[in-house]
Design brief:
This protein is of the alpha/beta class. The protein has 3 domains: 57 residues; 56 residues, no CATH class; 271 residues, Zn-dependent exopeptidases (Aminopeptidase, 3-Layer(aba) Sandwich), CATH 3.40.630.40. The chain is built from 12 helices and 10 strands. The radius of gyration is 31 Å and the shape is elongated.
């Protein structure tokens, strides 16, 4: 009887040990799965962060969701369908090649092309050209780039026109980059650009390549375009405020869609370039040229609260296709820094655009003190834009007076 009792106790202990081993096995499996899950979540977080950082510098790429080659797709099918592989001429496919492809799409770095390792840090590169925030400010967010109207962003770029004008400019680094040759027919009586001219001799010229850009608060159409309540009103207000500081200003309010026969949006800067050349040719004292636009970003990205009042933030756009773009950047930087001092948060910064992101010249080859200014966004109001026009006039006048 005693032996049977001992045997029973030993059996129970053995069973308990087996259960404990089984429980420990479950625990190990659970811990392993938990660690794998955490690793997976961390990797997703790192990937999201990298994607955010890359998109902040490079907004025109589809990252890891574009340019999948047909051969890569065929290779994936062949891995699972041997019959398909036996009837196709396929490139060699492997997980390593897929990994290289993913690495290139996520980071824009190709292990097969060493130049790509430094391309993202260079302004111009044989691999890819970047459009970036050149100078940020208190009101800037590197991840939020200027945005064209959605209905216009698909318009093709007039590359032929750009090539022609850049061939005209060439690599001329003369001391007077803003001098414009006057056509023979303009020498005796140069054409005056359509618009409003001040009584004083103008030193600033204000125009609007996309003159119908308006705001949701002023229009009822989807694209916020208007023939009357548009960005030209802000240009006129800027001129009026400059006049109060003793600076003469001339404003073009040309409505290009009606003034130009067979108007096409992709030729916008070709039309406005003629306007700028006529203004410079007819006024030899012009020093500053401003092309005022309205951004299409949402209100939360284009509004600043200063001393209890809301302002439409500004973004200075520099076309890096212009061989002398650094001179224009230096001019924009003066305005940006003055705004930072006196209206903190009003400037979103200076954004450089290259050939991959639009026109990238913006008539800035005509003057070293020419800059495109995005005033507010599609959700801002005309009143907020007027406040910004006054702030711009204040700092422009100060820069003019300091430089004599």
């Amino acid at each position: 009887m005693e032996r049977e009792l001992k045997l029973t106790v030993a059996t129970e202990r053995w069973n308990s040990a087996e259960e404990w081993k089984e429980l420990k096995g479950y625990a190990k499996t659970f811990m392993l799965l938990m660690l794998l899950s955490m690793t997976f979540v961390i990797l997703i977080g790192i990937g999201s962060y990298m994607r955010h950082e890359i998109s902040a510098k490079q907004t025109t790429y589809g990252l890891a969701t574009v340019d999948i080659k047909q051969s890569a797709l065929q290779g994936m099918l062949a891995e699972e369908l041997p019959y398909y592989a036996s009837n196709q001429k396929l490139d060699t496919f492997s997980l390593s090649s897929l990994g290289l492809w993913l690495l290139e799409k996520v980071t824009n770095v190709s292990l097969l092309d060493p130049a790509s390792l430094v391309a993202s840090e260079m302004l111009y590169s044989s691999v890819e050209e970047q459009s970036t925030l050149i100078h940020g400010g208190e009101g800037s967010d590197p991840a939020i780039a200027p945005q064209d109207d959605k209905n216009m962003s698909l318009a093709p770029i007039d590359d032929e026109y750009l090539d022609e004008l850049l061939a005209e400019v060439g690599n001329d680094n003369s001391s007077e980059p803003d001098e414009v040759p006057v056509a023979p027919e303009q020498e005796e009586e140069p054409a005056q650009p359509q618009g409003v001219e001040s009584a004083a001799k103008p030193v600033a010229f204000i125009y609007h390549t996309h003159n119908r850009e308006s705001w949701n608060s002023e229009t009822s159409n989807d694209d916020a375009q208007s023939t009357k309540n548009n960005i030209t009103l802000v240009g006129q207000r800027l001129a009026e405020e400059l006049e109060k500081h003793g600076l003469g200003a001339m404003v073009s309010d040309t409505d290009y869609p009606t003034a130009v026969p067979d108007y096409e949006w992709e030729y916008s800067y070709k039309y406005s370039r003629k306007t700028v050349k006529e203004a410079i040719a007819s006024n030899d004292e012009l020093q500053y040229v401003f092309d005022l636009h309205r951004d299409s970003q949402a209100r939360k990205y284009t509004t600043a609260e200063i001393n209890g009042e809301s302002y439409a933030q500004v973004y200075f756009i520099i076309g890096q296709r212009n061989p002398n773009w650094k001179e224009n950047e230096a001019f924009a930087l003066k305005i940006h820094e003055k705004l930072e001092e006196q209206y903190p948060g009003l400037s979103r910064g200076i954004w450089g655009k290259n050939a991959n992101s639009g026109n990238a010249e913006y008539n800035q080859t005509l003057s070293s003190q020419s800059v495109l200014i995005e005033v507010g966004g599609i959700d801002n109001t005309l009143e907020e834009s007027y406040r910004t026009a006054k702030a711009l006039a204040d700092v422009i006048a100060q820069i003019h007076q300091s430089e004599g």
